[in-house]
Amino acid sequence: MIGKLPHSVKISYFRFLLSYLYPQLLAKTSSKLNPVLEVRLSRGRLRLDSDNSTYSYEDLYDTFHTPFTKLNMSNHQLNNVLVLGTGLCSVPFMLYYHFNQRCRFVTVDIDEAVINLSRQFLPPELLQHIDFVCADAFEFVAHDAQLYDLIAMDIFIDTQTPSKFRSAEFLELLKKRLQPNGLLLYNTMVNHQDLERTANNFYRSTFKQIFPNAYAFRTSGNRVLAFKKSEE
User: How many whole angstroms separate alpha carbon 13 and alpha carbon 10?
Assistant: First the structure.
């Protein structure tokens, strides 16, 4: 809503309105993994961009907003949520502000620069609910003992998901970390022919083998694969 800024950025009201016409660059940094990381205020929301991809966009991050809406996420009782691939914490942001989830979030990212941007721009009230972990997500999941009501898998280096995160071994690890009735949402990019081919092959040859009851949500440029663990 115009005039309401649920984040910590301090910006003039004029510049806030201007963001609905032209994205406003707020911060720019880089790292070994992400040579380009840019935070913009766009349409009144914070957006994190890499060179060729949008990592985060508050409630306009349709990749997860569409599944959350279709799954009526406000009606779910979430206690522990794991987010693999931090961005600017769009998943915690949406669940907290738009779907009334006052749960504990664990976000894992291998790039400390990305985590630092979240710490810089997120509001203190949301930061109190987030545990940031700077680590390789594969290693984290392999050694973690916590069970989660929701796991959001959103790992990209620009437009690519490293191959180890598409392995059957990694998917089995995710499955073990789900509570009974826990939900896995796994983001794949399909906005180019080669990316769509890779995503389709992964879904058919690996994801459906580990999660036979899996299904998918099509969003703008992405396909989010979903699986709900049965009660034990």
Answer: 9
Q: Are residues 28 and 113 in the same domain?
A: no
Q: Please report the DSSP string for 42-70 in residue order.
A: ETTEEEEE-SS-EEE-GGG-HHHHHHHHH
Q: How many CB atoms lie within 10 A of CB 90?
A: 28
7 domain-assigned: no
CA distance 100 to 87: 21
What is the pLDDT averaged over residues 165-193? Answer: 93
Q: Are residues 172 and 131 in the same domain?
A: yes
Q: Are residues 206 and 167 in the same domain?
A: yes
**Cα(103)–Cα(232) distance, integer angstroms:** 23
pTM, entire model: 0.93
As a whole number, mean pLDDT of residues 13-35 equals 93
Taking phi first (over 0 means left), then psi (-120 to 50 degrees means alpha), and beta for anything else, what does residue 44 get?
left
The backbone torsions φ and ψ at residue 217, rounded to the nearest 5 degrees and listed phi first, read: -110, 130
Give CA 228 to chain center in angstroms: 18
Count Cα atoms within 13 angstroms, Cβ side, for 121: 28
Are the C-beta atoms of 150 and 182 separated by less than 8 Å?
yes
Q: Give residue-wise pLDDT tens across range 28-40.
A: 999 998 999 999 9
Q: How confident is the model at residue 71 (pLDDT cuts 50, 70, 90)?
A: very high
Q: Are residues 103 and 181 in the same domain?
A: yes
Domain that holds residue 27: 13-55
